[in-house]
Amino acid sequence: MKVLLVGDIVGKPGRNAFVQVVRQLKEDGRVDFVIANGENAAAGRGPAPDIANALLSGGADVVTLGDHAWDSKEMVAGIDMEDRIIRPANFSKGAPGRGWVRVDTPEGPLVVMQLICRVFMQPNYDCPFQMADRMLKGELGGDKVIFVDFHGEASSERMAMGRFLDGRVSAVFGTHTHCQTSDETVFPKGTAYITDLGMTGPKDSILGREVEPVLAKFLTGVPHKFDVAKGDPTLEGAIVDVDMKTGKASSIERIRISV
After folding, report:
1. Which CDD domains match (predicted)?
2. pLDDT at residue 124, rounded to an integer
3. Were 90 and a residue from 4, 100, 131, 227 both cysteine, which residue would form a disulfide, CB within 3.0 to 4.6 Å?
4. Is 68 considered catalytic here?
């Protein structure tokens, strides 16, 4: 099965690019299943359920979130209404929502799990390594095909997770920084890996935001409003080919497609 992993969707330009590109990839037979990070899908902020659900109806099979999961009070109240919208599993125990979902596909079950880093992020998240280990030894112990979105800043932490889970999951992929890395690989025990998928949104920008206000903030130190930019909408991500019987990845292809 070919699984498309979509980097952080930023605002309306990102949502539009996502729908257009995914539709074409599916029509061309290049992808069978789509995991999209919707962390910044609402004007660069965390989405309300209606926007996340629009991504599902627009081609995503699972939508992951991140540190902006609770930007919308509607998402706090509504995330439990849709299992295919997930937040990091190592959020506090009492947080709403869930950190993984098992989706039945024509070729068998596929699990998507999300974790969030702690380095340069909030230190009060539970340990992502221990959480992954507990889940793989517990409720996911019988699953073969598992994709892990590891949301965070530090490359080292994400690389360490990839090595930690090699042979235990099908893929570990980073989200959050909006900067696509070129280190895609399949580790020796069959786990596909990339440090960061990149961004789905306006490339003529600074991390999806209009250039001038960001420059002004750096030059003056004075706060500015960072609106989502509009130019050159592009989808960044990767396509992983996974054996649904063994759970091992045979390849990972980094992609960048402008619309």
Report:
1. MPP_DR1281
2. 84
3. 131
4. yes
Say which residue the tokens 């989808």 belong to. Answer: 235
Binding residues: 8, 39-40, 67, 151, 176, 178
Residues 168-216 pLDDT 10s: 999 999 999 999 999 999 999 999 999 999 999 999 999 999 999 999 9
State the pTM of this model: 0.96
Give the residue ranges of the annotated binding site for Fe cation: 8, 39-40, 67, 151, 176, 178
Catalytic position from the list 12, 15, 68, 144: 68
CA distances from 228 to 14, 39, 72, 159, 217 (A): 10, 14, 17, 30, 15
Domain chopping of the chain, boundaries: 2-203+231-258
Name the average pLDDT for the chain: 97
